[in-house]
Automatic annotation (TrEMBL):
It comes from Linum tenue. This is Probable bifunctional methylthioribulose-1-phosphate dehydratase/enolase-phosphatase E1. One of its GO terms (biological process) is L-methionine salvage from methylthioadenosine. One of its GO terms (cellular component) is cytoplasm. SUPFAM superfamilies: AraD/HMP-PK domain-like, HAD-like. Keywords: Amino-acid biosynthesis, Hydrolase, Lyase, Magnesium, Metal-binding, Methionine biosynthesis, Multifunctional enzyme, Zinc. Pathway: Amino-acid biosynthesis; L-methionine biosynthesis via salvage pathway; L-methionine from S-methyl-5-thio-alpha-D-ribose 1-phosphate: step 3/6; Amino-acid biosynthesis; L-methionine biosynthesis via salvage pathway; L-methionine from S-methyl-5-thio-alpha-D-ribose 1-phosphate: step 2/6; Amino-acid biosynthesis; L-methionine biosynthesis via salvage pathway; L-methionine from S-methyl-5-thio-alpha-D-ribose 1-phosphate: step 4/6. In the C-terminal section; belongs to the HAD-like hydrolase superfamily. MasA/MtnC family.
Length: 595
């Protein structure tokens, strides 16, 4: 029997507010469907009834009493007991909500189970859960328990949970009052974000890797949780743009890839595609918050790759004072800190630039390295690489991007573009066409994502096989180390892919220079000659003003675009660079050590 899934929805007119105190009969919970769905727990031919003569049919209580709902009820109760033992939902605080997974029902319309508010979470039972429709209408309310228990009440977090379901297509949301999630927002009362990088547990957060900077937005607390909805909405508003360390703060305060929002002096909301994802990420977030707090107590900076001593730079969090000394501003003793750390954190350092943004080619690295080493290596190994890795996920994605690019090139009459035959034509024919197109793109020095991504994968093989080593001007490693010691964060913005950037800086004659870098941007965020790209970067870095960022490049057009966005700009003059036009109006340097 065929049933149109678009016809399935839960009636919003059922219990728009709280239901009566007595437990509502399950027979009053309805599904609108023209045909019963046997494998969804409603048998074909089961009795139906009409509502107000409208012809809208009602399913019996079979679905509500089916295994999917029962198992999810029990799961919520079990998780609450686990979270209580972790300190996440003690004192009746915190909450959890999970959607009842059912392949027969579109995710936005699936039933929602939610733990009640103001109850002992560790003592909840399966029947204590609220059941709601996909649009938030209450379909089932638990019956009251004898004194001294309070009457049941739907979670105060419900409006915030619904925003996560609505805006992120979540499958589960966890609200924790864990001590770590509360204290970490107090380390810097003015901070709008929590940031951390180079920690293994970052890999447990969706869309992040070890080298990425994890960014979690912080919103201010209110007296009542349902008043937080507007702030949370801004934080999770979906408006996707690429971000060099996986997340991007937009002008409208949207974090398109975040899976959590911190509430200052309160706790955290975490969501995931499934309850497993939400639980795993919650555990990783709490671990990272605890690590940040302990690193802060030791006077170490969790937000930098090396986790070195906290520097008293503008906007930075003050390092703890020596053990046993009174902090006059707080009139309290601080956590004991070793003399080793205090020997390293002995003075305050102030500077005008919070961040430095670096181009690569002609700025940190000789143009000849790119033109005479990297490009030829990629060109000479295209066929070999594609043939050896043809079936891998990375290469299939590269081919997909190249096909799309070539189709566009053919439509616009781009020189060198040749049709790529379909997969059915055979691997060799496809690779031959791909090689021809890639060679033409390299000859034209095109700054396009499809080419840059493939080149990055080819170069990865070269660096892994020690056939390639990143080359830098002699002053670059020393300058990076010096800036890092001063607490200045350094980022890279290049037309090369983020993968390629990491490879170049991670494999050099001076060792791995990535430990001095805080993040990487590529052309996914925008063209380097467009002002909007630098606007997006400055907003993502969380500076008070774009003028706190210094951009170094060898290309005047890039300098003009960055200046228009409010960044400070200097032009790098290096051997082999193209001559600069007269009266370009920018300061120039021949070495980073001049800064």
């Amino acid at each position: 029997m065929h049933t149109d899934r678009n016809q399935i929805r839960y009636l919003p007119q059922v219990a728009a507010a709280f239901l009566p105190a007595s437990r509502t009969p399950l027979s009053r919970f309805y599904l609108r469907t023209t045909n019963a769905i046997p494998h969804c727990g409603v048998a074909k031919g089961e009795s139906m009834a009409a509502v107000n003569g409208s012809g809208v049919s009602l399913a019996s209580q079979a679905y509500m009493e089916g295994n999917a709902v029962k198992e999810t009820r029990a799961l919520v109760a079990d998780l609450c007991r686990q979270f209580y033992s972790l300190g996440w939902v003690s004192g009746t605080g915190g909450s959890i909500t999970i959607k009842v997974h059912d392949d027969c029902i579109p995710k936005p319309q699936q039933l929602i189970l939610m733990s009640p508010s103001g109850v002992q979470k560790e003592r909840m039972e399966a029947e204590d859960m609220y059941v709601m429709s996909g649009n938030g209408s209450i379909l089932y309310a638990p019956s009251p328990k004898p004194y001294p228990h309070k009457p049941p009440k739907c979670s105060d977090c419900a409006p915030l949970f619904m925003k996560a379901y609505e805006m992120r297509d979540a499958g589960a949301v966890i609200h924790s009052h864990g001590m770590e999630s509360c204290l970490v927002t107090m380390l810097n009362p003015s901070a709008k974000e929590f940031k951390i990088t180079h920690m293994e547990m970052i890999k447990g957060i969706k869309g992040h890797g070890y080298y990425d900077e994890l960014v979690v937005p912080i919103i201010e607390n209110t007296a009542y949780e349902n008043e937080l909805t507007e702030s949370l909405t801004k934080a999770v508003n979906i408006c996707y743009l690429q971000f060099s360390y996986s997340t991007l703060l937009l002008p409208i305060e949207a974090y398109p890839k975040t899976t959590a929002v911190l509430v200052r002096n309160h706790g955290i909301y975490v969501w995931g595609d499934t309850w497993i994802s939400a639980k795993t990420q919650s555990e990783c977030y709490h671990y990272l918050f605890d690590a940040a707090i302990k690193l802060h107590q030791m006077g170490l900076d969790w937000s930098t790759p090396s986790h070195g001593p906290i520097q008293q730079a503008r906007g930075a969090i003050s390092a703890p004072v020596k053990a046993g000394l009174k902090d006059s501003s707080h009139n309290s003793e601080t956590f004991p800190v070793s003399s080793f750390v205090h020997d390293r954190v002995s003075s305050s350092i102030y500077f005008d630039m919070c961040c430095i943004l670096l181009d690569i080619e002609g700025t940190t690295t000789p143009i000849t390295f790119v033109a005479d080493v990297l490009f030829p290596y990629a060109r000479d190994n295209v066929g070999k690489h594609l043939s050896a890795t043809y079936e891998t996920e990375d290469t299939q994605e590269d081919i997909k991007l190249l096909r799309s690019q070539v189709e566009d090139d053919l439509a616009h009459g781009i020189d060198g573009a040749v049709p790529i035959p379909p997969d059915g034509a055979g691997k060799d024919a496809v690779i031959a066409a791909l090689v021809a197109n890639v060679e033409a793109m390299i000859r034209a020095d095109r700054k396009i994502t499809a080419l840059k991504q493939l080149q990055g994968h080819i170069w990865r093989t070269g660096f892994q096989n020690n056939e390639l080593k990143g080359e830098f001007y002699n002053d670059v490693p020393e300058a990076l180390q010096s800036w890092h010691a001063l607490g200045i964060k350094v980022y890279i913005y290049s037309s090369g892919s983020r993968l390629a950037q990491r490879l170049v800086f991670g494999n050099t004659k001076s060792g791995d220079l990535r430990k001095y870098l805080s993040g990487f941007f590529d052309t996914n965020i925008g063209n380097k000659r467009e002002t909007s790209s630098y606007v997006q970067i400055s907003e993502s870095l969380g500076v008070d003003s774009p003028s706190e960022i210094l951009f170094l490049t060898d290309v005047v057009q890039e300098a003009v675009a960055a200046k228009a966005a409010g960044l400070k700009v200097m032009i790098s003059v290096r051997p082999g660079n193209a001559p600069l036009p007269e009266n370009h109006g920018f300061k120039t340097i021949n070495s980073f050590l001049e800064i």
